[in-house]
Design a protein that fits this description.
The complex is a heterodimer of chains A (about 260) and B (about 260). Helices cover about 80% and strands about 0% of the residues of chain A. Chain B has about 260 residues and is mostly helical. Chain B has two domains: about 190 residues, no CATH class; about 60 residues, no CATH class. The chains are: A mainly alpha (about 260), B mainly alpha (about 260).
Chain lengths: ~260, ~260
């Protein structure tokens, strides 16, 4: 199904992307497209990569692993989905990608649990004043999570690729594949709901209505809405600043009396 | 006066830049990476008192720490400045500052550096990719470079001004966060109808006449189903035991079921 070279390139590129991101930071917007696009290039179908990457990027918008929480890993989904999509078809690739992404969550939890081992190793090394050793434990303590969330699942999914695709073609009926496709169209809703839960919606809900009305009734594209949003944000900033100045000058006046 | 050379401080900054995922764990979260960043500097500042170094470094490692990467640079810079003062008990001051700031910084930092850029530029990157263009991705990379610039300066800001900066600008930062939230919510309002795609296939037939349910819904309000589904998920996520991942599985199951019975 995949040549040895393809597997090596895909796994190496994705692992590099994760390690780079862990150390220096990856783009919060567009990284999934990059992963899928390069995977597409490796597989010889860059357009497929762009399409799958764009779809997953949109599904991922609201999903932020804040406060140490874990969310579906659409980055793994993008690599695996594009690779498998290139050798079978778009629907199969998308379905396997979504499933890989969702299963990846528990691997992330496991990877963070393993981190405790390295914390304790570092603590005991510091107790013995062996700081160099402690820092080394801390340094390598990053890699179990990289292996668990990135390298291993991708390797396994690609090696099992042929079996997965055969299984899907032979055993999974068409309605189920269509079901995954429809789920894919519905899944961004989860991201937006999570987002609304994490942003302070109380007292600000009318801005959601503004955004909805601009698109649904007036057909303003995303960038246009962003510009209008910026205007409202600046107005609010000025109003709040004035309000604070007024409040502090009033309370300052009280002090003088 | 200072025992650290400019190079030493720059090395702290470099390690602090890369601190976040080093031995990340559920007990103390980002404390290992932070300790790794500041530890070698502490060894050098207090190299005449071995016991004190051990005590200080152990404190940084065992105290819980978790915040957003970019503003964490301010905290690291400020902690380094506090340690350099060599005041007795200054590690307790530094850790109190670190613990006190990580919560507010995470709230502000996530809104400005994680959520907003993703909502605005993630949607552009996604849509442009669907149309076969990488321009949106390029914008995402430009945003990342801008954040690199900010992140670099944050460390020196914290190092120069210590805790002063944060206390003197509290109101300004709060207003900025509020404005970011306004922009974010406006974008979510747009993204729900433009990204979530749900269409009902079911058609009623009365003899010769047919009536599509989707047409009825569209007459009530455009994109009614995406809005309703998002609202229901929002409500469910407020319930106990409903994690994001469970929600994703539930949506997959629900969509597959509706497809099976021919509604979607």
């Amino acid at each position: 199904m995949f040549s040895f070279l393809q597997i090596v390139l895909l796994v190496a590129f994705y692992t590099f992307n994760t390690v780079y991101g862990n150390y220096f930071g990856n783009p919060g917007a567009g990284n999934i497209v990059i992963l899928a696009y390069v995977s597409g290039l490796i597989m010889g179908d860059a357009n497929l990569g762009l399409y799958i990457g764009g779809t997953y990027e949109l599904m991922n918008i609201g999903l932020n692993p804040l406060g140490g929480s874990s969310v579906p890993n659409y980055r793994t989904g993008a690599v695996v989905g594009t690779a498998i999509g290139a050798v079978s078809n778009l629907e199969t690739g998308m379905a396997i990608g979504i499933i890989t992404a969702t299963l990846g969550t528990s691997l992330d939890v496991f990877g963070k649990t393993v981190g405790s081992f390295f914390l304790h190793k570092a603590q005991s090394a510091i107790g013995k004043m062996n700081y160099k050793k402690a820092y080394n434990w801390i340094e390598i303590g990053m890699y179990p999570r990289v292996l668990l969330t990135t390298t291993l699942p991708t390797l396994i999914a690609l090696m099992a690729g042929a079996a997965l695709v055969t299984a899907i073609n032979d055993f999974i009926p068409v309605w189920m594949l269509n079901g995954f496709k429809n789920a894919g169209n519905m899944l961004p809703a989860v991201g937006f709901a999570v987002l609304l839960r994490s942003l302070q919606i109380k007292g600000n809900f009318h801005y959601v209505i503004l955004g909805y009305a601009l698109f649904a009734y007036m057909g303003v594209p995303a960038l246009g809405v962003a510009l209008i949003g910026v205007v409202f944000a600046i107005i609010a900033y000025h109003n709040n600043t004035k309000h604070n100045e007024l409040a502090s000058s009033l309370s300052g006046g009280d002090d003088d009396e | 006066m200072s025992k650290l050379t400019k190079k030493d401080i720059q090395m702290v900054q470099l390690r602090s830049w890369m601190y976040q995922w080093k031995s990340f764990n559920y007990e103390t979260m980002q404390s290992p990476g932070f300790t790794n960043a500041i530890g070698p500097a502490i060894e050098k500042i207090y190299d005449n008192d071995k016991e004190l170094v051990k005590e200080k470094i152990q404190k940084y490692l065992t105290t819980f720490y978790n915040t957003t990467n970019e503003p964490s640079q301010i905290i690291c810079g400020a902690c380094l400045a506090i340690e350099e003062s060599e005041v007795e008990g200054c590690t307790d001051t530094a850790i109190a500052l670190r613990t006190g700031l990580m919560g507010p910084f995470a709230g502000i930092g996530d809104a400005i550096f994680r959520i907003s850029p993703k909502v605005i530029f993630g949607s552009l990157a996604g849509y442009m990719a669907l149309e076969g263009s990488l321009v949106g991705v390029g914008l995402g990379i430009l945003v990342l470079l801008a954040f690199y610039f900010i992140k670099y300066n944050f460390f020196w800001l914290g190092y120069r001004e210590g805790a002063n900066f944060i206390t003197s600008r509290t109101e300004q930062i709060k207003n900025l966060t509020n404005s970011t939230i306004i922009l974010g919510l406006t974008m979510v309002g747009t993204m729900i109808p433009s990204t979530v795609k749900i269409k009902i296939k079911t058609v009623f037939t009365y003899g010769e006449a047919t009536q599509s349910i989707q047409e009825i819904l569209d007459k009530i309000m455009p994109y009614l189903l995406p809005v309703l589904v998002t609202a229901v998920i929002y409500w469910l996520l407020g319930k106990k035991n409903f994690t994001t991942v469970r929600m994703v599985w539930l949506v997959i199951a629900f969509a597959t079921l509706l497809t099976f019975i021919g509604v979607m």
